Amino acid sequence: MHSNHQHQPEPSVMKKCKCFFDAFNSRMSFWSQCVFILIFALILFGPITNLLIWTVAETWYFPNALPSQWGMKYWYQVFNPYSDVSGSLLTSIFIAVLTVIVCLLVSVPAGYALSKHSMPFRVFWMLLFLIPQAFPNLTVYMNIARLFYDVGLNGTIVGVVIVHSVHGLMFSVWICVAAFASTDPMLERASRNLGAGPIYTFFHIVLPQAAPGIIASCIFVFLESLDEFTGTFFVGAPDITTLPLLLYTASMEGNYQIASITALILLVPSILFMLLINRFMKPEMLAKIGK
Amino acid sequence: MTRLNIENLNAGYGNKQILNDISLTVEQGEMIALLGPSGCGKTTLLNALCGFVPVSGGKIKVGNRDITTLPAENRNITMVFQSYALWPHMTVAQNVGYGLKVQKVAREEIEERVHELLSIVRLAGLANDKVTTLSGGQRQRVALARALAIRPDVLVLDEPLSNLDAKVRLNVRHEIKALQKQLGFTSLIVTHDQEEALVMADRIAVLNKGQIEQLGRPEEIYQSPKTPFVANFMGAENQIVWTPELESSILTGNSEALFVSRPTNLTANQQVFFRSENVTLITNTSRFDNDNSVLSLRGHVMQSAFFGNNYRISVQCGEHIIQADHTCDLPANTPVLLSVPAHALHVYDIETSFKSNAYATIQTSTSFQTI
C-alpha cells in the first residue's frame, strides 16, 4: 500500500510538477533562444552598427565608447559633386555596366552552345571559365597587370573592364548554361516546325525563355564588378578609382567616415539586386547549374 | 494540302537504326494512324518527316516536292506535339499567329486568320489569355490551331491525346476527327491506343520494330490482322500454339481431353489468336457439339473481373490461360467449356524454329494475365 502510494503520487501533484517543469522548460528555451539570437545579431550586425555609427561620427577618439561629436558633415562631403566619391561612383557604375555588356556578349552565345549536349569538349569549355578562379587571385591579377603594362592597357577603363569580365564570366557563363539548359527543347522545335529559321527562333523563343536566368547572371556580374578590388587595384590604380579603391584609400588614411559611407553606398545596389535575383532565379534553373 | 509520299525511309539516332525501310503514302485529305507499342519508331517517323531526325536513306515527298533533306522550317509539315510545346511567354493569339508572323503576313490578315482558327477550335474568347492559364484540353486546341494556321501541306499529331484525362480525351478525339473531315487536311496521327486509331483514322499502319507490319482500313486491321503481332496488338490477346502434341491429343476423342474440337483450318505448327469477346463460355461441360467449325476446350475458372457490361473470366485450360467474356460472375474452379467460332480465329503458321520462342510469348502473356 505504502509503496504503491510512493510510486503513484496524487494526480494533482503530478500535474503541478509537470506544469512547473513545462513552464521552466519553455522559459529556459525562451531565454536561451533570446541569448542565441542576440549573439547571432551581434555577430551579424555588430560590425554594421559600428559602420553606421562611423557614418554619423564627426570626432571619435579611442577610449570613448561613442563618438564625442555627431553630425552629417561627411555625408555632405561625400555627396558634394566635386568629391572623389561621386566621381568614383560613376566610374564604378560605368565599368560595371560595360562589364555586364561584355559578359552578355560572350555568355549568351556560349551558354546556348554549351547547353546543347552535342557540343564537343563541352566539359572542357565549361571548366575553362573556372580556371581564373582556380588560382589565387593575386597571382592571376599581378600577371594580367604585367601583360597589360606591355600593351598599354594598364590604367585604362578597357583594362579594368577586361579584368572584371574574366572574373564575371565564370558566373555569367555557368548561369547562362543553366538558364538555356532549363528551356524546353520542344519549344524550339515547335518554332522551327512553323517555319522560323534558327536565328529567328533563338531571339523569339529561346532567349525569352532563358531571360530570367540571363538577367540574374547580369546582376551577379554587375555586383561582382561593383565590389571588385584586387584586379582593379593592380590594373587600374592609380588612374582609375572605383568605389572599393576609394574605400581602401580612405581606410588606409584613417578616414573611417568616408570609408563607412562608401561602404553603405555599395550596400544599396547589392540589396536591391539580391531581392531581384530572388525573383528571377527559379529552382528548376538552379538545379541545372553545372549540368 | 497534298499527298505525302514516304519511300523506303531509314532513320535513326547515331548508330541505332530505328526506322527500317518504311514506305507509306498518305493521300490528299486522308488521316492515317501510326499505331504501335512504345519504342516501335512511330514518333521517330514523325520527327523524320518534320526534319528533326536525320534520314539515312529513302525519300520523303510532299506532292512532287522532295523534302528529304530540307531543314525543318522549309518543309511545311506542322506538328501537334505530345507536350503541346506552346510558348508560355505568349498569349493564345500570339501562339496561333506565330507561323504567319514568321512569314511576314500583314498584321490585319494574321488577326483575321487567328480569329477564324480560334472560332474553329472553339476558343474564340480566349485570344488574349496566357497559355499557362488554360486547361489541358484548351492547350491541345491551341496547339492544333497553331499548327493549322499556316495551312500546312501535312499535319502530324504526336500522341495528341495522351496528356488528357479520359473524358476530355473522348471529346477531343471526336473534335479532331470532325475538324479533319471539315477542313480536309492530310494528316498522320501517332498513337499507342488501338481504339483511338480505329475511331479517328481512315487507314491504320501498325508499326513494330521500325517496320510497317500491316497497313489497311480500320476494319481490315481489326478483323483480319495479317501477322500475329497485329492480331495481338489489336486486342486478340488469347494465343494458343497448336503443337503436333495438341493435334494428336484431339484425335483421341477422349472425353477428359483438354481440347474437344478444332476447326478444319487449324493444323499442327500453327498458332491461333482470338478475342475474349468471341469466346462462348458454357458451364455445362457435358453438353457440346463436336463439330469442325469451332475450337472448343475445357478448363476451370481462375478468376473473374467485372468490366461493366460483362465479366472477364480467366479460364485455366491446361497450361493456357484463356480470357472469356461472360454475362455473369463465376466462382473459382467452376468447370467450363469454351468455344470459339472458326471465323473469329486468326491462324498463323509458325516456323518450327520459332516454336520455343512462341512458347515464351505464351509464358509471358500468362504471367501478365495472372497479375
From TrEMBL, chain A:
Keyword Transmembrane helix: yes
Topology with respect to the bilayer: Multi-pass membrane protein
One Gene Ontology CC term in the entry: plasma membrane
One of the Pfam families matching this protein, by short name: BPD_transp_1
CDD domains recorded: TM_PBP2 (cd06261)
Alphabetical list of InterPro entries matching this protein: MetI-like, MetI-like_sf
Name of the protein: ABC-type spermidine/putrescine transport system permease subunit II
Upper lineage: Bacteria, Pseudomonadati, Pseudomonadota, Gammaproteobacteria, Oceanospirillales
TrEMBL record, chain B:
Pfam families the UniProt entry points to: ABC_tran
Regions annotated as coiled coil: none
One MF annotation (Gene Ontology) recorded for this entry: ATP binding
Xref: SUPFAM superfamilies: MOP-like, P-loop containing nucleoside triphosphate hydrolases
Keyword Endoplasmic reticulum: no
Keywords, in A-Z order: ATP-binding, Nucleotide-binding, Transport
Name by which UniProt lists this protein: ABC-type Fe3+/spermidine/putrescine transport system ATPase subunit
